[in-house]
Structures are given as C-alpha cells and as structure tokens.
User: Fold this.
Amino acid sequence: MRNFYLLAVFTLASIGLAILFFVYPNVISPIPYGTFTFGFATLICFWLAMRLSRTNQSSPNDAVALVRTLRNYFFVMGIFFFLDGIAHVGIPTFYPVQIVASYMHTFSHIFFFLGSAIIIRIPVAFINPRWKNAASWSQILIGVVTVGWRLTHLDSLVTIAPGVPPIIIADNVSVFLFMGGNILGLLIPGLYVAYLGLRTLDRTTRIRAILLGLGMIIFFSIGPVIDYFHNQYTQLLIHLLQASSFGLMGMSAFYVPKREKSREASTQRTFTTV
Assistant:
C-alpha cells in the first residue's frame, strides 16, 4: 500500500500546485503553465510504469496480467504526454507555426491510440477474453484513420487570452474521430468496469475496479474540454482532470491491503485474464 498512498499524495500535491499556479501565475512565471501539466503527466506515467514493473517481478501472487497491462499503458502514455506537451506548450510558446504544431500534435496521438489499444483489453477481458485482440485492433484502426485524416487537415493555433500561448484546435472531423475513439476506448469501458465494481462483493476487487473505471471516465472527459472549453480556465481544468484520472488508474493497481495479500490469487481471479 506504500505506492498507493505515495501516488495519492503526488496527485493531491499536483492538484494543489496547479491551483496555486493558476491563482498566482507569478509563482511559476516565466515558465508556461502547461509545462507543469504535461511535465507532471509525463513523470507520473513513467514513475507508474517503473513501480508496476517492480511489482510485477516481486509479487507473483498479484494479478500479474493486470499489472503488466497497466505498466505498458503508462509507459506508452508517458511518451504521449511528453510529445503532446511539446505540441501544446513548447511549439506554441517558442515557435508558433501552425504546420509544425499540427504535425507534432498528430504524431503524439499515435501513442495515444496505442495506449487506448492497450487499456481497452482490461474491460473487454471481463466480457470475453477472446475479444481482447479485436478490441485492440479496433482502436489501432481508429487511430490510423484519424492520423491519416489529420495529416491532410491541419490544426489551428488560436489565442484565447492575452499573455497565454495559443492553443491547438482540431477540425470538426478530427474531433469526431477522437470522440468516437475515446467513447469506445475509454468512456464505455470505464463505465462498464465501474459498474462491475459496484456489483462485486469482494472489497479489494470492488475498490480496484471502481478506481480504474473512474480514472478512465475522467480521462475521457479531457477530450471534450480541449475541444469545446476554450477560455482562460481550460489549462487548469485539463490539469485537474489529467492528474485525477491517472492518479485513480494507478491507485487501482496499487490497492492491495496487507490483510488481504494472502487471498490475492483467489480474489483477483477475474483480473488475470487481461
């Protein structure tokens, strides 16, 4: 449980700092606000991947398949947030050229869809383990179509407030494709996992499933915020959603009460099919 509580502290500290930097921007000036958001996201994803890798090696009685899937997911998403941070913050701040920002934004989302192809395997395993590969390939196919479209339809750089770097706005078709992929890869699976958790009698399994499901649902909500919530509060809201979503998903893997470790193999039987 040490990692569970440590991640909870990191998440709450990140949210607190995000609010502080937003209310008192001089504290972080002249560093762009988004640097903190994407920097935290990148670090927390790589930290989660590292800790889960160690858990996988040292805890043979844990739900190894679940841990491995989440480890791979967080590693891929760490790459995504690093590249997406360059697209959303670095390029608009220091080299605001539309075509450069657009292509970097598109390239970063290759890893986003790869991550979606990984994480969707967890909820699908509850329905029918034989569908996992098909579910992963559906996300990859959506990613290929989306990236192909975006290579010929550039994003726009739009200034929303004085002193704030321009933000990237995708065209309506790209938004539709992103939304469709996120609904299938995050929202519906997240709702299903949370629902299963509410119906599960075992306390550990219930908490893990609810944490994971809520994390996926909250992460889905970042897309609509980016696409439709364009004002000075956008970056703060993105950070709050991003930090809480990955905090919850990471804590779902780390939640193993000491008194229940001896029962881990039996109580987590469902997770081992991921």
Residues 58-62, 262-274 have pLDDT under 50 and may be disordered. Residues 260 and 274 are 21 Å apart (CA to CA).
